Amino acid sequence: MTTVQARPEGATTFESLDPTTGDVVATHPVHTEAEVREAVARAREAAAWWSALSFDDREKHLTAWKGVVTRRLAQLADLMHRETGKPHGDATLEAALGIDHLGWAATHAGKVLKRRKVSAGLVMANQAATVEYKPLGVIGVIGPWNYPLFTPMGSIAYALAAGNAVVFKPSEYTPGVGEWLAQTFLESVGHPVLQVVTGFGDTGAALCRAGVDKVAFTGSTATGKRVMAACAETLTPVVIEAGGKDALIVDADADLDAAADAALWGACSNAGQTCTGVERVYVHEQVYDDFLARLLDQARGLRADAQPGSQLGPITMPKQLDVIRSHIQDALDRGGRAVLGGVEAVGERFVQPTILVDVPEDSLAVQEETFGPTLTVAKVRDMEEAIERTNATRYGLGSTVFSKARGMELASRIRSGMTAINGVITFAAIPSLPFGGIGDSGFGRIHGEDGLKEFTYPKAIARQRFKPVLALTTFTRTDKAEQQLAQLVTMLHGRGTTIPKAPRATTGGVNRRRRTR
Ligand code: NDP
Predict the structure, then answer these.
(1) Beta strand 374-380 with 278-284: parallel, antiparallel or unpaired?
(2) Closest Cα to atom 16 of ligand 1
(3) In testing the pocket of ligand 1, which one of 16, 31, 142 has its CB within 8 Å of the most ligand atoms?
(4) Which of 30, 86, 171 to mutate to test the pocket of ligand 1 (most atoms within 8 A of CB)?
(5) Do 165 and 138 contact (CB within 8 A), yes or no?
(6) Is residue 229 located within the same domain as residue 138?
(7) What range does the domain containing 79 cover?
(8) 399 to each of 257, 381, 389, 437, how far by Cα in Å?
(9) Active site (catalytic) residues
(10) Residue 122: which CATH number?
């Protein structure tokens, strides 16, 4: 079995391993704190050049890089396959989606961030008001191993397009993909605007303290808290893209074959190692048996192994095997049943698809991120209960609704950053949609207009066009000006009618509020 990567005391290099075979893929430097600071200093120099370019010129450079990455897609996918074990097809899909995001960020940055006029309002009618979004400087990007290209690209592409330089710390499991990105960028653009530092958690921690202007972290909630604590020392802002416990709900009128297909792919693709992967399913009681039968029918053909053409790869991070095993065991100990797989499905490198039913809602498999090809399926009396259970989690990343008539209504009531209706994880592949969560899934957004703005600060400018009729911001302000201001404000804002108070409920609203607190 592949051993867990631990940092040997004083090691200056480390090896990335193929999780399928345990073979060494490559050796990489462990960058020290001083080396991380040097990388940030180089990035700051590069940022001065990069941020001075026009949006059009940056778009040209990013398009050149995108072309190189696209033409070498097969090479990139092969490296991703070797470092994570994911099937070649999945690696190609991941890289293709990352490239699409890069293209969107490059072509939309100007439109979203350039200076634009806004109304100054009647009170300040003598002013011309503009807002524009300026790059922050150097962004530290810390990425996970499960989607080593797509996930960091969600920060890197948008940060670069907004005019920042980036120092990227990839996971110790996937350092090669990070180096590949930085190398191809340098080849395409000729300036070290994107750099990579490699190593273990210490290197990531050093990046947080190296004077970057923002940290974009993607990884577990626990590490996200450590990153935030380190960034707090220097008031460095952070974006946290953390874990999830996403649910899929199936209404009585849903297309059950499509819902079963989505649940299975959402749970098992990438061997279940997806932050927005489906981990829980809530099905209307009228279609529960039918849905479960179809799900099992589809799932029985799926196997995780090292055969060429296999659709499921290994578990990339070996210590995750214990987490997956413990969640299944806990579910079974508390009265759950494995209708497919079970504890014995957890092997030395691979985990076979596991479907659990009758699992209590307070068990680990329903509450904690499992990050394996497992799924709990529960019967609910109606969609009210489905939403209630879906929302009873401290996470809030993605979610899925299968319903013909009520998709939009149900989706809008789920407390999560993103929802797919009659599809699964589709929101991640739409570059114009913001990606991110709430609660323990983190905060801030990558992708879309919000993702571009995340790596900027708004610059507001008010320019006086002519002398004000009402001179207000001066010690020469007159009583007359004050009276005129009061009249103007009354005219503009004084017309709202008071909303009559609802009669008090006899049970006492105060007590009820107290109880729900
Ligand atoms: P980790 O939290 O273990 O690591 C994430 C990154 O943080 C790695 O590069 C890691 O380096 C680095 N790191 C570790 N310790 C520190 C530290 N003290 N300071 C700074 N950086 C540190 O997550 P995983 O790599 O295991 O990724 C899986 C997790 O990521 C899952 O919870 C998953 O849900 C989440 N995820 C969230 C996504 C989202 O967009 N919301 C997308 C994809 C994944 P090293 O690897 O060297 O330890």
Answers:
(1) parallel
(2) 201
(3) 142
(4) 171
(5) yes
(6) yes
(7) 13-242+448-458
(8) 18, 19, 12, 11
(9) 241, 275
(10) 3.40.605.10
Give the H or E element holding residue 57.
helix 55-71
Measured in angstroms, how far is the CA atom of residue 440 from the centroid of ligand 1? 14
> If you search the block for the tokens 């009729």, which residue do you land on?
469
| Domain shared by 347 and 400, yes or no | yes
CB of 414 within 8 A of CB of 393?
Answer: no
- Could you tell me the distance, in angstroms and rounded to a whole number, from the CA of residue 299 to the centre of ligand 1? 29
Q: How far apart are CA 277 and CA 270, in angstroms?
A: 9
How many structural domains is the chain composed of? Answer: 2
- Neighbouring C-beta atoms of residue 445, cutoff 10 Å: 23
Ligand 1 centroid to 220 CA: how many Å?
5
23, burial (CB in 10 Å: exposed 0-12, middle 13-18, buried 19+): exposed
Q: Whose CA is nearest to atom 4 of ligand 1?
A: 219
* Index of the ligand 1 atom closest to the CA of residue 219: 30
Do residues 333 and 384 both lie within one domain? yes
> Which residue's CA is minimally distant from atom 35 of ligand 1?
219
Comparing CA positions, the residue from 248, 274, 242 lying closest to residue 260 is 248
- Amino acid making up residue 412: S
Distance 351 CA to ligand 1 centre (A): 21
Closest protein CA for atom 14 of ligand 1: 201
Binding-site residues, ligand 1, Cβ < 6 A: 142-147, 151, 169, 171-172, 200-201, 204-205, 208, 218-220, 223, 226-227, 241-244, 275, 317, 369, 397, 437
User: What are the structure tokens assigned to 302, written together?
Assistant: 């799926």
Tens of each residue's pLDDT in the chain, 517 residues: 333 344 566 789 999 999 989 999 999 999 999 999 999 999 999 999 999 999 999 999 999 999 999 999 999 999 999 999 999 999 999 999 999 999 999 999 999 999 999 999 999 999 999 999 999 999 999 999 999 999 999 999 999 999 999 999 999 999 999 999 999 999 999 999 999 999 999 999 999 999 999 999 999 999 999 999 999 999 999 999 999 999 999 999 999 999 999 999 999 999 999 999 999 999 999 999 999 999 999 999 899 998 888 899 999 899 999 999 999 999 999 999 999 999 999 999 999 999 999 999 999 999 999 999 999 999 999 999 999 999 999 999 999 999 999 999 999 999 999 999 999 999 999 999 999 999 999 999 999 999 999 999 999 999 999 999 888 899 999 999 999 999 999 999 998 888 888 776 554 444 444 443 3
Best substitution site from 84, 179, 220, 445 to test ligand 1's pocket, by max atoms within 8 Å of Cβ? Answer: 220
Residue 317 lies in a domain: yes
Q: Tell me, yes or no, whether 181 and 286 share the same domain.
A: no
- Give domain status of residue 168, yes or no: yes
